[in-house]
Amino acid sequence: METFIVKGEVFSRMRKALGDNFSRKMTSEFGAVAVNFSKERFVKKNWKNQVLEPWKPRKRPDRGSLMVRTGRLKRSVRKMGSGVDYVIIGSDVPYARVHNEGGKSNKSVYVRAHTRKKTVPKSVNLRTRKPSRKRVDIGQNIKVKSHTRKMNLNLPRRQFLGPSRALEIRLQRHLKLTIERTITKKL
């Protein structure tokens, strides 16, 4: 599980100045702002701290958007918990930490027995004698025995959770606007 905690002196000062109800409301709103900031990283495909750090692009751009095949990781980012002076946002998806921090994986995986359709090239170039890339199923099935395969994965860091100066500024702006609205409403 990958988590990020929003906490600090702001919450204790806010509680002293404006009371517990206001600080509970703001804690909840800070969680929503932090979750939206994190989900925005999937759309913008970058990490925003003091400078913009773009994610490393896909090796095969024809395969679609970065890190959003099913949308499970993006949807899993949510508020995990909160207290009087902190908010925890995170993801319960098992691969969230690897995507957020990057890393290498050298594991052996078990491949179950299965069948594979036999195919042949659709045509041959008469001049070069090279087969075409398009293939045609010839109706035969080949049995593949179960085996283990060594997987060497190298995932680049594509951060979407963590401390960010840009998020702090966004939270300060949100707090300032909410306090101004509260003061003008009471007057």
From TrEMBL:
<dbReference type="InterPro" id="IPR006522">
    <property type="entry name" value="Phage_virion_morphogenesis"/>
</dbReference>
<protein>
    <recommendedName>
        <fullName>Phage virion morphogenesis protein</fullName>
    </recommendedName>
</protein>
<dbReference type="Pfam" id="PF05069">
    <property type="entry name" value="Phage_tail_S"/>
</dbReference>
